Amino acid sequence: MAPVDPEHVIRLQHFVPYRLAVLAEQISRAVGAVYAERFSLTRPEWRVLAALGEHGEMAGTDIARFSALDKMAVSRAVAALQERGCLTRHDDPRDRRHKRLRLTPRGRALYRRIVPLALARERFLLDALPAQDRAALPRILAALQRRAAELDGLDETAP
Amino acid sequence: MAPVDPEHVIRLQHFVPYRLAVLAEQISRAVGAVYAERFSLTRPEWRVLAALGEHGEMAGTDIARFSALDKMAVSRAVAALQERGCLTRHDDPRDRRHKRLRLTPRGRALYRRIVPLALARERFLLDALPAQDRAALPRILAALQRRAAELDGLDETAP
DNA sequence: TATTGTTATACTCTATAACTATA
DNA sequence: TATAGTTATAGAGTATAACAATA
């Protein structure tokens, strides 16, 4: 095959969006195995559990914003967790459209069993990095995320 | 809510697997909009196109390995691209189980139209990073990927 | 027997939208 | 009118496995 003008070829293994997608899938599988296989939680269910474990009590929309899920995903995950006896829903007397969601003792116990395993896997991943890169990572992720949000905005306003 | 022992809580916004998953989704949406909305390609189709655009001619299993897709995804993407007249399949006389896949002129033209747009979006993302972080990123991604592969292996061998 | 590639199936995820009940 | 949450639906992705053809 004749090589093409390098400006007009993407070297996939070096293309950052591709690399990030593959890495995220891989990590999601490796870390997700903790809550998926051992505790039969889907990823949205785990995120809802994590949001409530961290914050104690939230409304559905707060969870959606906090966990980067849409409201249907939250709704289904909440229903599944309630089914398992992991959370309760109470009407908010101040605004009865809201449901106040909180973990039951059973839900908190589940959360507490998962957290150390998930943190251990994160630590294992980050241990591969020299200190300087480990410090740079959160900064890089934040910068890329801001920039990606701008790109998303471009699509919506100028189709 | 009583705060819990910090060793037993995950702060989701700082949890790297979560941050990476959210970022990858966002970038996938932003960059994927190029080939999805404007050129009606799914992500697997785009990856197959990118593999063939970079390498010229490949068998299905090579594409699968190169593009981090499984063989069914490749099979379906290849069928869709052939349907659109973007690639051809020829029997390999040396091993007739293989199909030799290559882009048609139409497929190459499509590839050439997408590449500059995708590269521009990548550049836009990376422009947000200071030079040092931009240099660190490929190194970090590679290290995390090696490590995630080890984690994946752990799950399979020690369930 | 093992490998390439296709097909079948089922489950999850995503996106859109319609609907309710409250405000 | 607008918001919180649920339900319905269809499209895409993913995973497992069975299968045909070839090696």
Give an overview in words.
Chain A has 6 helices and 3 strands. Chain A is mainly alpha-helical. The first copy, chain A, has a 3-stranded antiparallel beta sheet. In chain A, strand 2 and strand 3 (99-103) form a beta hairpin. The longest helix of chain A is centred in the C-terminal third of the chain and has 27 residues, at 131-157. The interface between A and B is large, with 72 and 72 residues. Chain A binds a DNA duplex (23 and 23 nucleotides) through helix 4.
Descriptors:
3-stranded antiparallel β-sheet, 159 residues, DNA-binding, mainly alpha, homodimer
Structure described in brief:
With 159 residues, the first copy, chain A, is mainly α.
Layout: helices, strands, pairs:
The structure is a homodimer of 159-residue chains.
Chain A lengths: L15 H22 L5 H13 L1 E2 L1 H8 L3 H13 L3 E5 L7 E5 L1 H22 L4 H27 L2
Antiparallel strand pairs in A: 1-3, 2-3
Helix pairs in contact in A: 1-5, 2-3, 2-4, 3-4
Chain A binds a DNA duplex (23 and 23 nucleotides) through helix 4.
What coarse outline of chain A follows from CA principal-axis ratios?
A: globular
β-strand amount of chain A: 5-15%
Largest interface: A-B, 72 and 72 residues
Computed structural class of chain A: mainly alpha
**What quaternary form is this?**
homodimer
Could you estimate the helical fraction of the residues of chain A in percent? 55-70%
Low-pLDDT runs of chain A? none
Order of helices and strands of chain A: HHEHHEEHH
Biggest sheet strand line-up of chain A: 1-3-2
C-alpha termini separation of chain A: 36 Å
What is the C-alpha radius of gyration of chain A, as a whole number of Å? 20 Å
What does the average pLDDT of chain A come to?
A: 91
Sketch the major β-sheet of chain A. Answer: 3 strands, antiparallel
Helix run count of chain A: 6
Total DSSP E strands of chain A: 3
